[in-house]
Amino acid sequence: MNTTAGTTPPGTRDEREAAQWVERMFAAIASKYDLLNHLLSLNIDRSWRAALVRRLSVIFSEPESKVLDLCCGTGDVMLDLEKEGKGSIFGADFCHPMLVAAQAKAARKQSGASLFEADALQLPIADHKLDAVSIAFGFRNLANYNSGLQELHRVLKPGGMLAILEFSQPPGLIMKTAYGFYSRIILPAIGSLVSGSPGAYKYLPDSIQKFPSARELVRMMNAAGFVNTRFELLTGGIAALHTGLAAGRV
Ligand SMILES: C[S@@+](CC[C@H](N)C(=O)[O-])C[C@H]1O[C@@H](n2cnc3c(N)ncnc32)[C@H](O)[C@@H]1O
């Protein structure tokens, strides 16, 4: 299997098995997901999501705009976007228990967002319907990154914005060493203790390690037909926020 095509969880032989592994893994940790997210990132994940929402706010301030938060998980980005914007917001994920958690959170917050279950690689959306797509910490888990980018390009209107928030590899030596120690030793220990799912928190640093660099992701976005593609490193490069605009087909 080509390991740069997409995520390659342990023991999986092809894209179908990789997607199933990811879906089952998120189903197993869904009830502890929010707690672990904020705990393991020392709450810094909130500022990363806020940066993503700020980047999309120009588009989403239009009342007619349609924005999809893909791989929405328990719905935090979707709900933050809704708070800041005026358009219609949708959330999609292929993991049912994550969507159930998102639905419950949306109901508590009296959200008008619409949720649906779908695979990011085969979205039930006609061509060129969306003004923006956000995807926070979901893209790394796709079984095929190029297919994912092509699918996102397909559903965006020409000029529509894709914003990908994802873990990255810090470029500086000190940050790289400190984060390497944290993500390889501390994070799997706490993650497996709290979630009861050791595989999930071993997969997290492994999948970050294998994920394309920020520059490589720019190149892949450009190849899929995005223009004005750029990225911003967050917290010394632990995370990166990529944005690009869908151009006509290349
Ligand atoms: C790390 S969580 C991120 C959730 C949320 N965006 C956040 O910021 O907390 C990744 C989510 O991506 C979803 N996901 C992974 N691969 C997917 C795919 N191919 N299609 C749809 N959802 C997917 C998982 O089910 C999971 O809910």
Can you put this structure into words, describing what you see?
The chain has one domain: Vaccinia Virus protein VP39 (Rossmann fold). The protein is 48% helix and 20% strand. It has a seven-stranded mixed β-sheet with strand order 3-2-1-4-5-7-6, sandwiched between helices. The structure holds S-adenosylmethionine (SAM).
- Beta-strand fraction estimate: 15-25%
Instruction: State Rg.
Output: 17 Å
How many strand elements?
7
In this entry the ligands are: S-adenosylmethionine
What is the fold-level CATH name, i.e. the topology? Rossmann fold
Unreliable segments (pLDDT under 50, ≥5 consecutive)?
A: none
What is the structural class? alpha/beta
Number of helices: 9
How would the global form be characterised? globular
The oligomeric status of these chains comes to: single chain
> In order across it, which strands form the biggest sheet?
3-2-1-4-5-7-6
CATH class: Alpha Beta
Largest sheet features = 7 strands, mixed
| Helical percentage | 40-55%
